[in-house]
Amino acid sequence: MVTVDRIADPWGSRTPYGPGECWPTRVDTFLADGLTEDEVDRWVQSATILHSNGDGLDIAVKDGRMVGVRGRAVDRVNHGRLDPKDLFGWQANHSADRLTTPLIRRGGKLVETDWDTAMDAVAGRTKQLLDERGPSSVGFYTTGQLFLEEYYTLALIGHGGIGTNHMDGNTRLCTATAAAALKQSFGCDGQPGSYADIDHADVIALYGHNMAETQTVTWTRILDRLAGPNPPAVICVDPRRTPVARAATVHLAPRPGTNVVLMNGLLHEILRHGWIDEKYIEDNTVGFDELRTQLGDYPLQKAAEICDVPIEDLREAARLLGTAERLLSTVLQGFYQSHQATAAAVQVNNIHLVRGMLGKPGCGILQMNGQPTAQNTRECGADGDLPAFRNWANESHVEDLARVWNIDPMRIPHYTAPTHLMQMMRYVEDGSIRFLYVSGTNPAVSLPELRRVREILSQDRLFLVVQDIFLSETAQLADVVLPAATWGEKTGTFTNTDRTVHLSEKAVEPPGRARPDLDIFVDYARRLDLRDKDGEPLVKWSTPEEAFEAWKECTAGRPCDYTGITYEKLRGGSGIQWPCNANAPDGTERLYENGKFWAAPDYCENYGRDMVTGAPVEPTEYRALNPFGKAIIKAGEYLPPHETVSDEYPYLLTTGRTLYHFHTRTKTGRAPQLQRAAPEVWVEMSKSDAEQHEWSEGDLLRIDTPRGHVTARLRISGIRTGVLFLPFHYGYWDTPAGHEPALEGRAANELTFTDWDPASKQPLFKSGAARVERVAVVDDGPSAAPTTTASAPVAGTVPATSGGRDAETTETFDEGGPR
Ligand SMILES: Nc1nc2c(c(=O)[nH]1)N[C@H]1C(S)=C(S)[C@@H](COP(=O)(O)OP(=O)(O)OC[C@H]3O[C@@H](n4cnc5c(=O)[nH]c(N)nc54)[C@H](O)[C@@H]3O)O[C@H]1N2
Ligand SMILES: Nc1nc2c(c(=O)[nH]1)N[C@H]1C(S)=C(S)[C@@H](COP(=O)(O)OP(=O)(O)OC[C@H]3O[C@@H](n4cnc5c(=O)[nH]c(N)nc54)[C@H](O)[C@@H]3O)O[C@H]1N2
Ligand SMILES: [Mo]
């Protein structure tokens, strides 16, 4: 056993291994207040909730309180390891400022109330609007952070009970493009690959994915391969010098907004060399000829110029991709939150399709998720899909769903695709949506163009319900605030990026009168008196396990088949990958083995969309294109971004994450070790840009776009010249009293604009142009940005980020220690 400061060393000790070997176990433990494992009363099984990895862990309980966490050695995902956010973030559950009682707005102020009063107000306003204005006046905006059972219940209430088409999740901001890209290429959502592909791959390509900071345990698996015999080559596509870039064999740092041309250039080169599997293409795909024609316009030289990347680096990346024997690709927000998000992400799928690299060990595609339970938001239909990957444009799928729910098919709106969030916000702005029920998300910090968002959410005519665990920036604008119990205080299941389903058991009681989200939704349905066609209650369950059993019925015969999973089966061991049914009782590691896809016209989840206009492909058109349900190769034409640099706004602005914080920091900002590691907002700029202005590390800068401004201290980092980066974690809940949000200007989304990818409708957080000026020379040292991450300073004089005594954790190894 060794002791490690996991703030100073976020990835912990190496356990090197070679290709095809099993990733060694390393069990990470953190117990608060110097407790030892012997002093813990109970360990309660769960999985991690601050990213999409789904690392198995046990929660330590003493005297009815959480006191720590320990990774689960038996879990297929993490083999015992934990991320710093998971080691320390649970402490937020015990914060003194948790919401413990419902709040209602009276005389302009939020005041405490009881559950009956609060829920009667919520259900009462819903009924009133349904009578006066119909179902389209009611909207739901949920998250990727609740449990499967909760989403399925919400989807039933919204789609089946109230009959509104206005239901989406913050997954729209997060993984809408992952889903869209999978639907475009394979006719259906669901990751083809498995995390275990890391054990086999000889080339790993990460596209716009800072995995080292955002899926740290999966990155540890790659680091362990890199430290072992016959390590894989790593390709990184990111304009910043992230820890991934630092470890990469080839780092391509394109100009933001040029991903499609980069991908087309790489594909052009792959085709030019004939690095393709013609038999695979012939047997298993449609659309290759169009791709070949399209790629004629994208010689490598053009990509090098538009992306401003050295052509030798592009050539080397293409060679690695083209000659890989086992290629693993991962894609995330650097692609998904750009204009042309879907077009870019689909080109990654195309590389695998033309090379026949799918459904075999090491040949995975991970169109990554971000949030821990985003996969379930999508599967359950709480986000602009129908449950269990049913196709809203296929009448027989809607009828089948109505059968499961025992309602008339006409009750389920399907005249058009479910409304996406950005459109819902427009409807709220216009006043056609008058009731918005927000659960588990904080749009007043996480949506683009915050000044507009605040205006929309504070309108008098809008009835805003916010179900959260803290009085977030959004909750402060609500008419009713519902206090939720969260992870560790309630039971449920959730599914990670590689389709692994975990059970998370209740470990402790929620604070005060807070209730699990499931109980609140069920209560809401009861008060609305929603009924099926026999007059029975529409929502027929009240416990998580009952909800799970109902969900299983809904998934029978669909791609995400859960029928072989039970709570009992999830207890004790590892998570299980869907599909899991009578044919695959232990789950399914990889999809699309032997070129079998879920893309048949009668079965597929979606017919796809035009990637330039976003128009849905018509069923007849799809049937003609893909009668036998093969994989679909879709070419993408490069279009320049809508907003780009000008004399007035000469910098490209991009935003994203740091290792130590999760989103709007409602949890990580309340965990002292994490908050200390990244206490305030900063802005990253390259050394040459800073030198040109004669600005120094730590200077206070003001960043402006036409939407607003942010002030932040300068970190001179390895970012691409001409690009600025802001972390988006810093909202206003912990700014000192008396500071006006708009004046304070520290949330990155004050700057971002209202625009989205046409196919996935995902907003563009990684584009835009900005101007920057210095407002003060600060000579009390460097900015507070972490030094261990992408924000590493170029100057060697900045003190290293470290955690200190209360950040010490332990690591326990298989056979006596790290090799
Ligand atoms: N520590 C931490 N981990 C998290 C989260 C968190 O908040 N904190 N959130 C979770 C969630 S919900 C998500 S969605 C994921 C997100 O995980 P990531 O996508 O890995 O995180 P981001 O920082 O948003 O963006 C990734 C990278 O995109 C790069 N980028 C910016 N513009 C471009 C571009 O035009 N082209 C390319 N190729 N790259 C570009 C940025 O420099 C950045 O390093 O992380 C999950 N894990
Ligand atoms: N500029 C910029 N903006 C971005 C991004 C970016 O990269 N750049 N990334 C986008 C992405 S990928 C994402 S995922 C979003 C995230 O944006 P949000 O979803 O708005 O961020 P969170 O802070 O995770 O908000 C979750 C809320 O749910 C609450 N909560 C936690 N657990 C529970 C629970 O069990 N029940 C209930 N009811 N509530 C709970 C938390 O207290 C918090 O208020 O941000 C997006 N916005
Ligand atoms: Mo996300």
TrEMBL record:
Entry keywords, A to Z: 4Fe-4S, Iron, Iron-sulfur, Metal-binding, Molybdenum, Nitrate assimilation, Oxidoreductase
PROSITE patterns: 4FE4S_MOW_BIS_MGD, MOLYBDOPTERIN_PROK_2
Residue spans of biased composition, Acidic residues class: 809-819
Cofactors that this protein relies on: Mo-bis(molybdopterin guanine dinucleotide); [4Fe-4S] cluster
Composition bias, Low complexity: 781-801
GO biological process, one term: nitrate assimilation
Residue stretches making up the 4Fe-4S Mo/W bis-MGD-type domain: 41-97
Coiled coil regions, renumbered to chain: none
Spans annotated as Disordered: 780-819
Pfam families: Molybdopterin, Molydop_binding
Name of the protein in question: Putative nitrate/sulfite reductase
The species this protein was found in: Rhodococcus gordoniae
